[in-house]
Amino acid sequence: MFEQLTQLVQQYGNAAVVNNDAVPNEHNDGVMNEASNSIFDGLKKIASEGGAEQLAGLFNGNSKIDSSNPVVQQLTQQLSGNLGSKFGLSNSASSGVAASLIPQILSSLVNKAKDPNDNSLQISDIISSISGNSGQASNIMDTISKYGTQFGLDQNGDGKIGVDDVAVIAKKGGLGGLLGRLFGK
Question: Positive or negative, the Cα torsion across 135, 167, 2, 15?
């Protein structure tokens, strides 16, 4: 997932970084690398701090990916602070770069993961990359379970998502199938 994220930063970085007079040219590569690292680390931090519901909302398309989104706000603040401290950019320059990059990159990342014609990145890849350990994955799975009945994941009709439902879904398409159903693929 990090590689795809880095490619998206490179794609959107021209307008926000390279063609931005507030970012000295000698810092262009460093600023874009920092953007990739900050987004990835920020998503991992949100997952580890119990933000599974925010992440599920982000990746299933129920939340707008703009400055009003709490995930976007948190990642923008983190990147802005990092750019100021690591590269000496002014508050307005670092805030401008972050506010420009974060929504574009997250929107593109979510759209890419949800696109049935693009197999280069799956929602399951993102969750796996950012959840890191079974406790975090469990929190995300709890959120999936919470919303799962709305997406037809309750295979035996008992009103909850359990191991038996996962077993049936696994036979039909594995974890990718489970997450695909949740996120509309």
Answer: negative
Burial of 127 (0-12, 13-18, 19+ CB in 10 A): buried
Distance separating alpha carbons of residues 140 and 107, to the nearest angstrom: 20
Residue 33 exposed, middle or buried by CB count within 10 Å (0-12, 13-18, 19+): middle
pTM, two decimal places: 0.71
Instruction: Give the closest residue to 175 by CA, choosing from 128, 106, 142.
Output: 128
What is the DSSP secondary-structure string of the chain?
Answer: -HHHHHHHHHHHHIIIIIT-TTS-GGGHHHHHHHHHHHHHHHHHHHHHTT-HHHHHHHHTT-S--STTSHHHHHHHHHHHHHHHHHH---HHHHHHHHHHHHHHHHHHHHHHHH-TT--S--HHHHHHHHH-SHHHHHHHHHHHHHHHGGGT--TTSSSS--HHHHHHHHHHHHHHHHHHHHTT-
Reported as a single tens digit per residue, the pLDDT across 13-39 is 988 999 999 999 999 999 999 999 999
Nearest to 43 by CA among 132, 130, 104: 130
Above pLDDT 70, what percent of the chain?
66
